[in-house]
Each structure stands twice: as structure tokens, then as C-alpha cells.
């Protein structure tokens, strides 16, 4: 199957996925704030209200607990709601419904209930949005059994993964990045569905594995290019799903390169990178030639000031430096 | 004419006796589980609904098996009244493999999808928006189903209660909110925690019609909730019912009940819904005292037989702990 030359932005690719899934399955419907007539504050649901009407593209009051709860009830009754939480930071007001309800109902009911719910939201810093609109919280959700957590980095994956998420019978946190909505790339016009939990090697290399997801994949690719100019071949892996995460792909790459640098915009402490490092440690360091390194956001709330904000976050140069030092110290 | 009247009268008597039997079944069920709890056979905490049986039985009278329901950690009586199997609920309380939830839910999380029971909740008020969502599902499907959600007086101070009422109101959803006001939330009197005379006053803020009913009068509950169910089913939207009641036992088994007087409990015991129903049956001549005693014995025997059977049932396989997560 060849990649179409029709480039789409991330927002358009997500919109395509929603439209196609709603056309395919009448049980799929959308809920969220400003998603109807207005088309969503990031434009992801644009045109869907006109096509599907107010019952299936349902504007909600500013009641995240209430409408996530309602989506859970509808899902328990056989529907497949896709809810938009405008900013992941706002999901915090609905944590009971997400963590205590959606994630546990299948288990607590002994498998009687299925909760096919997708919570679409966006995260990330770098836009000067301040501490309550800049967090990357995927690790927090990945800690809860019963939730799946996905964070795509490009339009093709975004479309294919969103389609997969909508077809999942478990609740999925589908985390977009606020600074990627305008990012263009090819999408497959076909019905491509990428199963959750499979990483992709976005740049092959032999000297070091750089692992990340979402917007950081682009930073890693930029770093890899710079490293290549210095004669260092980095393999860049896009994890795509945090829960479940693709241990085989990571292990396979590390087996080849012997070095691992994990890059995430989530805070360093207890971030998903720690889980991956710990899992590799448990499996034995047989293939590791060097300690695992992490390039993550500092453990502070995101500051407003642009320079401070940039300094808190990972950037391509820090990734380059980390890899250089690793290769210098553990040749 | 006279024949018709007698016929109706007979129907009414039969229905009342059914309510009586179901209330008694719930009472004996709760007593059995309290005994088990005291013997250490039940984990965590156990919150019996003794004294509140008329609400479960009356409110669910006109509810169909296909209708949706959510309730609370105190909701095993409602599960039984909705049609869940006695053995299935009992086995779940004991954490047995044959429990409705394979022993993984426990007494606070009874779920029975085949009877529309999409879950009991241990988080105060959390089941309310979920029931609203089930009502939304019914609305989208246009299948004539409705949702009923049971919650306590304490739930009305949770934010999600207000969010859920508002959603049901703006979308005109087929749902009945049943607040079991037993005057206390855990150890705290509700009158100290709200300024309202009646908690149901809050429904008016969302333009939801409300009614207060004697929650210890099974016929009154059935009639009031029945009208709300009719309204929901015919597209009239949500209704809020506040059923005034009292729990005769502690918030949970082992509660020292220091927050209320013996006199208060004794006064309310006079209004025992089962006792009242029995007096009514005897006064109307719907059954003889002997046949009521026989009925009582039958219910007790049924509970005992089920209990003996369930106690022997196997524990879940240890592998079961890893199943049903995704
Ligand atoms: C969100 C939340 N806060 C606190 C508790 C602890 N808790 C359990 S039951 C209860 C009282 C609830 O009272 P009410 O809603 O009146 O129901 P009742 O127990 O009287 O049936 C409390 C505070 C809880 N389970 N969930
Ligand atoms: Mg109460």
C-alpha cells in the first residue's frame, strides 16, 4: 500500500478518523465543549455537526465529570462515545469518573460491562500557556489498570490510532499535542488501523536508541539529524502508546544499539521513562553498553515566561548533548 | 360492576403481598449478610439498607428488566428488587466465583447487566452521571427504556450531582433520580449540611419537577415513582423523588451510632415499612395472620437455603485476578 500524496494536518487527519468512524458505526457519537457548531477549539470536529447533527455531535456544558460520566453510562449501554476534553489539565476535575469508574467497571463487574469510551484531549508545553494548561500527564493515566493511553506524533498515526481507539472495547485516553495540530504529513486514504501498543521505528540507526512519543519525536528526529552530521547513527522510536507499551520493539532496538535515551515532555520523576528503564533493568543489562539516560521536563510546574518554559522542557540540543556524552563516556 | 371491583381489589391485594414478600426478602437477606459480616466472612465494610426496603421495592415496581439502574454501596436490596438472582448477589457479597461479578466486585459493586444494573458505586454520587448516560443511550436509541438512579441525601452536596441533573434537564432525558433521604450521611445529620428544608428543592434550580414521598410507605413510593417513570418513558424528561426514610442499623456494621439517640431510632422503628405493610394487609383482610406467618417462614427458608448453598460455593481461581482488566 503506498502512501497517498494527500498531505493532511494533524487536526484534519483526526477529523477524517472521526468522520469515517461515525459513518462506519452509528453507535459512535461525540460529546464535548464547543465541539458542535464551532467545530472544537482546535478545529478537530469541524464540519461534523453539519454532517451528523446535534444528537451525534453533542455540545456539553462545562461539566467534565458530568459528561464523562454520561459517556461512561452510554458506553455501558452499548454506545461508543468519543469525548473531547479541551485540555488534559481539565481531566483532573473528572478523575473520579475516569479512574474510579471507567477504568474499573469492566473488572468490578467480572467482565459483564465493556466501556468503549475514547477521551480525546491535548497536552504539552511550549506555547506559553502557564502551569494549568501545559502539562503532559500521560504517565499519570498509564498508572491506572483498565485505561489505555495513546499519544500520536504525526497525521498518519493519529488517524489510524484514533480509529483503533474508537474500535477498542476499553476506555482509551487519546492524547494529542497542542503544537502538532497544524503539522502536516501524509495519511493513508484507506481504512488503516494501527493496533494500540505497537511502537514504530521512525529512523533506523545503530549507535543509540532514542525513545519518545508525541511532539518529542520531532525533537528526537531533529537531534538525530544533527548527530548524523557528527557521525552518530541514532535509532528513533516513536512509542505511540504508553499503555500498553511495546516492550519488544524497545528491547529489540536496545539489543542492537546498546544505548538508550528516553525523551519525554512529562515530568522526569515517576514519568513513563522510569517504567521503561526499570523494565529493562529487570530484564537484565545484558545488551546495555551504557546507563539509560532520560531527557524530560524538570520537576516543576510549567512557568509562563517563554525562556523559563523552554528551559524546563527537553529540546533537541539537550538530546544531542546527552547522546554525545553517553557515547563519549561509554564508547 | 361489583365483580370488577372485587377483581381489582384482588389484584391490589396480590400486588401488595408481592411487595411485602420482596421487602421481607431484602430484610432477611440483609440480616443474613450482617451475620456473615460479624463472623468475618465479608471483607471491608458492609452497609445494610434495613429500614429502607420500601424504596427499593416501590420505586422499582414499574421498572422493566431492560431499564437501566445505578445505585450505591447500600444497594443490594435494589439489585434484588430489579430482578438480580438472590444466589448471585449473595455469592458476590462473599466474593465467590459464582458471584454476579465473579467475586471481584464485592458488596459495594453489585452489577448485573442482564437486569440493566450497570453498577453500584462506592464513590458518593458517582453513579448519578452514569445513569444519565444510560438515559442518553436510551434517548439516542429511542428504545423506550428509562434509567433510575438511587443515591443518598449526602450525594446532593457533590458537584457531579449538580452536573448530572443539569445534563438530564437540558437534554430532556428519560431518568428518575431517587434520593433516599435517611437523614444522615455516615454520621452527619443532613440538616447540618444543607440550608434547604428538603434536599429535593435543589431540583427546581435545574427545572426538574420534584416530589417528596414517605419512603417507608411502599404503595406511596410505587405510585409517586411510577408517575415519574411514566413521564420519563413518554418523553417528559427527568423527575426528582426525595423518599424520606431512616436506616434502623448503623451506617456500616459495627457503627457505634453515637450520633443519634435510642429514642430516635425507636420512634422510626415504629414506622418500619415492613411492619406498616403487614398492618395494612391485616387491616384490609388481604391475608390471614397465619398465612403471613407462613409467608415469613417461606422467605426465611429461601434465604437459608440460598445461604447454605452459596457458602459451599468455590472461591475464584487465582488466575481470575488477571482477567477482565481490558
Ligand atoms: C466521594 C466520597 N466521599 C466520601 C465517601 C465516604 N462515605 C461513604 S458513605 C458516606 C455517606 C453518604 O451518605 P448518603 O449519601 O446520605 O448515603 P447513605 O449512606 O445514608 O445511604 C460517605 C461520606 C465516599 N464513599 N465517597
Ligand atoms: Mg443518608
Question: What would you call the shape of chain B?
Answer: globular
* Range of helix content of chain B: 40-55%
CATH class category name of the largest domain in chain A: Alpha Beta
- Count of distinct structural domains of chain A: 2
What would you note in describing this structure?
The complex is a heterodimer of chains A (331) and B (326). Chain A is α/β, with parallel strands linked by helices and 331 residues long. Chain A has two domains: 7-186, Thiamin diphosphate (ThDP)-binding fold, Pyr/PP domains (Rossmann fold, 3-Layer(aba) Sandwich), CATH 3.40.50.970; 200-329, Rossmann fold (3-Layer(aba) Sandwich). Helices cover 37% and strands 20% of the residues of chain A. Chain A has twelve helices and 14 strands. Chain A has helices at residues 10-24, 48-56, 64-76, 95-102, 105-108, 138-142, 155-167, 216-229, 247-257, 272-282, 306-312, 316-329; strands spanning 7-9, 28-32, 57-59, 80-85, 118-123, 148-150, 172-177, 184-186, 200-203, 208-212, 234-238, 241-243, 260-267, 293-297. A seven-stranded mixed beta sheet of chain A has the order 3-2-4-5-7-6-12, sandwiched between helices. In chain A, helix 8 (216-229) crosses helix 12. Chain A is globular. The termini of chain A are far apart. The model of chain A has no long low-confidence stretch (mean pLDDT 96). With 326 residues, chain B is of the alpha/beta class. Chain B has a single domain (7-313), classed as Thiamin diphosphate (ThDP)-binding fold, Pyr/PP domains (Rossmann fold), CATH 3.40.50.970. In chain B, the strands form two sheets. Chain B has a six-stranded parallel beta sheet, with helices on both faces. Chain B has a two-stranded antiparallel sheet with strand order 5-6. In chain B, strand 5 and strand 6 form a beta hairpin. In chain B, helix 1 (2-38) packs across helix 11, helix 2 (53-59) runs parallel beside helix 8 (218-233) and helix 4 (86-93) packs across helix 11. The longest helix of chain B has 37 residues, at 2-38. The relative contact order of chain B is 0.16. The mean pLDDT of chain B is 97. Classes of the chains: A alpha/beta (331), B alpha/beta (326).
